[in-house]
Amino acid sequence: MNAARASILALLVCWACSALALVAVPPLSGRVVDQTGTLAASDIASLTQTLEDLETRKGSQVAVLIVPTTDGEAIEQYSLRVAEAWKIGRKKIDDGALLVIAKNDRRLRIEVGYGLEGALTDATTKRIIDEDITPKFKTGDFAGGVSAGVDRVVRVAEGEKLPEPEPPHWQDTGLLSGIDPFNPFVLAFVFIVGSALRAALGRLVGSAATGGFVGVLAWLLVGSLGLAAVVGVLAFLIFAFIDLMPSGGSRGTRGGWSGGSSSNWGSSSSGSSSGGFSGGGGSFGGGGASGSW
After folding, report:
1. pLDDT at residue 127 in the model
2. Helical packing angle, 203-222 and 225-240, nearest 10°
3. Phi and psi for 36 in degrees, rounded to 5?
């Protein structure tokens, strides 16, 4: 009995050690993650634009990972670990694909989410690897091979019938989207209208009317109903309780509200334009193909 327990314990220790020895999955820092320095900045920018355009048009997400080695782990197992960690593709649509290259091992794999398996079949991904990627890799043209493979994956993915992508969360779809909602003249106009409504209708009714007016205006400017509701409630609270603010601090409050909101809006826009990227919750089941060169 003691010998059996010792054997089980030894097996558990070996399993734990092997798990700890696995190459860590790198963080998803962009649509193209190159840990080997193989691709030039211009190559990464071009690939990123291609993949971003696909997501905008189709909703599908495709990512590229280049690592030095999987350190003995099968490329199939490593790719699936990356896919499960990054969750490329939309949740419940599972329209993601992942190109993983272990450069020093001379191995690569295209991992395909459930939602794209109808177009990116195992046979199709194998042909992409054999016909588009590895011939260029064999000549040392890694940038060309990755680009050719990505282009063909994108073309094939375009043929899959999938739900239309949702517009970006912060997309300006309002009727007056060309107007900056935090322009001082817009804020002054809102304050004048709010003061007039409060004077004519009383504190609570006038503040409620002001909140409704500001909410509609926010919806026209931004195009987001949820954000418009939040801004409308905030306007109601400000005008309803503005009397409770010290007269000296009132101006500072209004100034702080204007400046702070403008700063937050600007930071959101810059974060979006900087190419921030995250997986959408897609799932993978091991579909795809592997290859070597």
Report:
1. 97
2. 150
3. -110, -10
pTM: 0.60
Which residues, including other chains, have CB under 8 Å from residue 98's CB and lie 6 or more apart?
62, 63, 64, 65, 79, 82, 83, 86, 88, 110, 111, 284
Helix (H), strand (E) at residue 107? strand 107-113
pLDDT digits (tens, 9 = 90+) for 171-218: 444 445 555 556 677 677 777 887 888 778 877 887 788 888 877 877
Q: What are phi and psi of 94, to 5 degrees?
A: 60, 40
In 3-state terms, what secondary structure has residue 63? Answer: strand
pLDDT band at 244 (very low <50, low <70, confident <90, very high): low
Residue 269: phi and psi, rounded to 5, are: -65, -45
Token digits for 287? 């579909």
> Which one, of 158, 165, 54, lies nearest residue 116 by Cα?
158
The owner of tokens 């004048």 is 192
In our burial notation (b when 16+ CB lie closer than 10 A, e otherwise), range 205-232 reads ebbbbbbebbbebbbebbbbeebbeebb
Neighbours of 288 (CB within 10 A): 29
Q: Which of 28, 101, 25 is nearest to 66 (CA)?
A: 101
Tokens of 58: 């189709």
